[in-house]
Design a protein that fits this description.
This protein has a single domain (16-217), classed as Rossmann fold (3-Layer(aba) Sandwich). It is built from eight helices and six strands; from the N terminus they run βαβααββααβαβαα. The chain has helices spanning 28-39, 52-61, 66-70, 103-110, 117-127, 143-154, 173-186, 201-213, and strands at residues 16-22, 44-50, 75-77, 96-101, 132-136, 158-159. The longest helix has 14 residues, at 173-186. The N and C termini lie far apart (56 Å). Bound molecules: flavin mononucleotide.
């Protein structure tokens, strides 16, 4: 049986719909990369919402802006458009990703305070028992932050703080961003090239030796932090 090629038209058969929201937590680069990776997957129809807070962090932290990121999505919705399709459970989606997710948006979701499209779409995602992933970025965390995360988890959401892994020996900020974005997209069953997967300690040791041989040394305990690769701290 021959399969129809997947067209990129919104609503075309065979495409999975993912809602992506970028909010004003530090780490706008995670949201940008997620949209870039999804743009490379023709089987995914991306619905994008960028908050006013995210427009600020995009300006402070990246060299891109909301207009450029929006061009990579299939459909862009405005934060205040509570009549957008993703505001209703009758509009079928395969889930929603908030990346990065601010504490304000986390609180909105935990308390069903649906006064903007990000929180409303997240609430809809939970009520329809679809996948909701919040990449909550804040540190340190006080008890109310932790309670909000517990609330969302109890309602079926998944909290994924963007905590870097080091087993894949990241050399650049890009490596760290890619790994987190790839692991987040794993949660939607989307296998991308972004992730470097753990394939056992022997293979990791071989990789580290090869890097040492090529002059690119894996970081070791006691190394000074690589200043030129450091991500700027958020407020
Ligand atoms: C540069 C910058 C970095 C910020 N970093 C964070 C952060 O890491 N986590 C957070 O919860 N809020 C952070 N904020 C504050 C949020 O932007 C603010 O609470 C905003 O109202 C969030 O709204 P939104 O969730 O609708 O985007 C930051 C603000 C700025 C300007």
């Amino acid at each position: 049986m021959t399969r129809e090629p997947i067209t990129r038209e919104p609503g075309a058969p065979g495409r999975r719909r993912i809602v992506v929201a970028i909010t004003g937590a530090s780490g706008a680069a995670y949201g940008v990369r997620a949209v870039e990776v999804l743009n490379g997957l023709p089987e995914v129809e991306t619905h994008l919402i960028i908050t006013a807070g995210a427009r600020r962090t995009l300006a402070y932290e990246t060299t891109t802006d909301a207009a450029a990121v929006g061009k990579l999505a299939d459909v862009v919705h405005q934060e205040d458009d509570l009549a957008a399709p993703v505001s209703s459970g009758s509009f079928r989606t395969d889930g929603m990703l908030v990346i990065p997710c601010s504490i304000k948006t986390l609180s909105g979701v935990a308390n069903c305070h649906d006064d903007n499209l990000v929180v409303r779409a997240a609430d809809v995602t939970l009520k329809e028992r679809r996948r909701l992933v919040l990449v909550v970025r804040e540190t340190p965390l006080h008890l109310s932050h932790l309670r909000l995360m517990t609330e969302v988890t109890a309602s079926g959401g998944i909290i994924v703080p963007p905590v870097p892994a080091f087993y894949h020996h990241p050399q650049t900020v890009d490596d760290i961003v890619n790994q987190t974005v790839g692991r987040v997209l794993d949660l939607f069953g989307l296998d991308t090239d972004a992730v470097q997967r753990w394939e056992g300690s022997q293979r990791a040791a071989r990789g580290a030796r090869a890097r040492r041989g090529s002059g690119a040394r894996a970081p070791e305990a006691g190394d000074a932090p690589a200043r030129e690769q450091a991500t700027p701290a958020g407020p």
